[in-house]
Automatic annotation (TrEMBL):
SUPFAM superfamilies for the chain: Helical backbone' metal receptor (SSF53807)
NCBIfam families assigned: TroA_like (NF038402)
Keywords tagged on the record: Signal
UniProt key word Signal: yes
Domain named Fe/B12 periplasmic-binding: residues: 1-160
Keyword Signal: yes
Superkingdom classification of source: Archaea
Organism: Thermococcus litoralis
InterPro entries: ABC_Transporter_SBP (IPR050902), ABC_transptr_periplasmic_BD (IPR002491), Vit_B12_bind_prot (IPR054828)
The protein's name: ABC transporter substrate-binding protein
Amino acid sequence: IGDIYKAVELLGRITSKEEKAKDVVAEMKDKIEEIRSKVQNMPEVKVFYIVWSDPLMSAGNGTFINDLITLAGGENIFKDTQGWPQVSVEEVLTRNPEVIILPPHAGISAEDLCNTQLVNTDAMKNGKVYTLSSDDIVSRPTPRIVEGLEEIAKFLHPDLFNFQYQPLTCEATS
C-alpha cells in the first residue's frame, strides 16, 4: 500500500497537482487508520480469498489482497504462500476458513460454491461467503484500494460497521 502512496505522489508531481496528490494520500491514510483502529482489538477471522476458480487460486503474501485482509482484521489462510498460489480444495478444507471472499469475476459465483466440497468449511456452513462489489477495488494499485479494505472489514466484522448481509444458504439436494 505504501507503493500506492508513492505512485499517487509521483503522479501529482508529473501533472503539477502535488497538493491534490498529498490530499488523496492523506485521505487514504486516514481511512486506513480509522478501519485499523476499529478492528485492532477484535479476534482475527480466517479468510479464504478466491482469485480464480479453475484452477483454484488464492492470494498469498506480498499481494495487496493479503495486506487488505490483514488490515481489515483477518488472517489470510494462504499467508504462508507467495503471490498467487494455485491451491487445492483439500488445502482449503484443512485450513477451514471462517469467511470466503471472491471478486465478481472469479469464474465462479458464491452460489456455485454450494456445489463444491467447500460446503464443508465453517464459512459455508455459516453463510459467510461474500462477493466484492468490484474487482478493481482490490486488484489495481489505486486509491480505490481503501474501498476494498472497507468492504473486507465489513465482511469480517459486520457488527463493528453496522453491515447487514443476506447469508448464503445452500439448498440441500436430494
